[in-house]
UniProtKB/TrEMBL annotation:
InterPro entries: Bud23-like, Bud23_C, Methyltransf_11, SAM-dependent_MTases_sf. The lineage of its organism: Eukaryota, Metazoa, Chordata, Craniata, Vertebrata. Residues 30-106 form the Methyltransferase type domain. Residues 236-245 have a biased composition (Basic and acidic residues). This is 18S rRNA (guanine-N(7))-methyltransferase. S-adenosyl-L-methionine-dependent methyltransferase that specifically methylates the N(7) position of a guanine in 18S rRNA. Requires the methyltransferase adapter protein TRM112 for full rRNA methyltransferase activity. Involved in the pre-rRNA processing steps leading to small-subunit rRNA production independently of its RNA-modifying catalytic activity. Important for biogenesis end export of the 40S ribosomal subunit independent on its methyltransferase activity. Locus-specific steroid receptor coactivator. The gene is Bud23. Keywords: Cytoplasm, Methyltransferase, Nucleus, S-adenosyl-L-methionine, Transferase. Belongs to the class I-like SAM-binding methyltransferase superfamily. BUD23/WBSCR22 family. It catalyses: a guanosine in 18S rRNA + S-adenosyl-L-methionine = an N(7)-methylguanosine in 18S rRNA + S-adenosyl-L-homocysteine. Residues 176-251 form the 18S rRNA (guanine(1575)-N(7))-methyltransferase Bud23 C-terminal domain. One of its GO terms (biological process) is rRNA (guanine-N7)-methylation. Its main location: cytoplasm. It comes from Thalassarche chlororhynchos (Atlantic yellow-nosed albatross).
């Protein structure tokens, strides 16, 4: 429908804007999950070149019929990005990366597929470039899984959330940097009425929890600390043993 096309174009425009491309030269971009090439149309209109990857032959057939300007590749990005190192000046992806969280086959391991995707994407991107992946996460766990694998693969950056207070307009953009870490762009609609900023979720230093209040351990509580320690143990890090003092408040003075 035309509404879907309109939203898709808006998100493509925003993703390209978040890439912060140089204005003085055409760039080569990778479009992950390019579908029928709607994002590609915008990239071409901006004077850039692109290669699109998609897992759906039917969608790519539509792109061919529409005579898009980009080159098209039928492939599952969970198997990795098959391009030479440093080839792309940036990568965008609209509403696609969350599909890597699904295990469609018995042999599929979402963390492995995500890591394969991010590590090969990291290699295929030029140093100093960015990847901006708009996604529809099902829940906070998915967001964490995706972000953790991106960081494991060497990316820095984090989630840029546009219109965080709007149920309809809220959009998640995972904004990733290759090499030198940039400043995370601000999300749209993050200024409150009184001009105060809503703090972005930055994954580079402070990891903000994406859990809603229901079923969430209060920050710094004993449960919260135990959960955090358990997570760190699973990552193979050294963690102090739990004791009866774990998570206890200290008295104001000894």
């Amino acid at each position: 429908s035309s509404r879907v096309v309109e939203i898709q174009s808006q998100m493509s425009e925003r993703a390209v804007e978040l890439l912060g491309l140089p204005e003085d030269r055409p760039c080569l971009l990778l479009d992950v999950g390019c579908g029928s090439g709607l994002s590609g149309d915008y990239i071409s209109d901006e004077g850039h070149y692109w290669i699109g990857m998609d897992i759906s032959p039917a969608m790519l057939d539509v792109a061919v019929e529409r005579e898009v300007e980009g080159d098209l590749l039928l492939a599952d990005v969970g198997h990795g990005i098959p391009f030479r190192p440093g080839m792309f000046d940036g990568c965008i992806s609209i509403s696609a990366v969350q599909w890597l969280c699904n295990a469609d086959k018995k042999s599929h391991s979402p963390p492995k597929r995500l890591y394969r995707f991010f590590s090969t994407l990291y290699t295929a991107l030029a140093r100093g470039s960015r990847a901006v992946l708009q996604l529809y996460p099902e829940n906070s766990e998915q967001l964490e899984l995706i972000t953790a694998q991106a960081m494991r693969a060497g990316f820095t950056g984090g989630m840029v959330v546009d219109y965080p207070n709007s149920a309809k307009a809220k959009k998640f953009f995972l904004c990733l940097f290759v090499g030198a870490s940039g400043t995370l762009p601000k999300g749209l609609g993050t200024e409150c009425a009184d001009g105060e900023e809503i703090h972005q979720a930055k994954f580079t230093n402070e990891r903000t929890r994406f859990r809603n209040v229901k079923g969430k351990s209060v920050k710094k509580s004993r449960d919260w600390i135990l959960e955090k320690k358990e997570r760190r143990r699973r990552q193979g890090k050294e963690v102090r043993a739990d004791t009866k003092y774990t998570g206890r408040k200290r008295r104001p003075r000894f």
